[in-house]
Amino acid sequence: MTGSTLRGFTAIELMVVVVIISVLLVVAIPRLLKVEQQAEVAVLSNTLGSLKSTARIAESKAVAQGVSRDGNVQILGKTVYFHNGFPVARANIIGEGAPGSFSGIVDIMELDGDINVHYSDQTEILSRAFVQGVYLILELNGKCVSYRPPQTDGKLPEYSEGIFTFNEENLTCTP
Question: TM segments (predicted)?
Fold first, then answer.
């Protein structure tokens, strides 16, 4: 019988492998984090574009239905309230289909499931007068975009001018 010899790795070979893996991780992890941040910005940029498109399409639908300033417009089976020709940011709390109920722009948008919806005013809104100046804030991991219907007739809605920072305490979306 001949004896078999087992051959393993030396300590130096193992250390070299550990060093190589460590260097790869140090280089790769920051790049992966940067890619993730870029993806979040891209999602919010697309959401802002979708918000603008939805507002313009809704405006066209309102004009076609004879609502030029304030009033209700039927869109996708929802009663959307318009202020100065554009959809308001948020719905009231009466409940869909109840007398006096209305929806806002977020109710006719298709949003990514990771995007959180916030409003600048969290009071229980029942009437149209209280909803006209409210901002819609769409937030993803502390970054946000915003929308508010025009406050003057003949003007365009107010949108964030890019990707901003969300302040959860004050419910604001600021540069």
Answer: 6-29
| Global pTM value | 0.76
Q: What is the pLDDT of residues 46-66, one digit of tens each?
A: 999 999 999 999 999 999 988
Q: How many CA atoms lie within 13 A of 75 on its CB side?
A: 29
Q: What is the pLDDT of residue 121?
A: 81
Tokens of 116: 């959180």
Q: Is residue 2 included in any domain, yes or no?
A: no
> Is 126 a domain residue?
yes
DSSP E strand stretches across 28-171? 71-75, 78-83, 86-87, 116-119, 136-140, 143-148, 158-159, 164-167
In a domain, 6, yes or no: no
Structure tokens at 130: 């209280």
Say whether pLDDT at 1 is over 60.
no
Give me the count of residues in the chain.
175
Examine the pLDDT at 11 and tell me if it is beyond 90.
no
Distance CA(89)–CA(74), nearest Å, equals 16
Number of separate domains in the chain: 1
**Domain ranges, residue 103:** 12-174
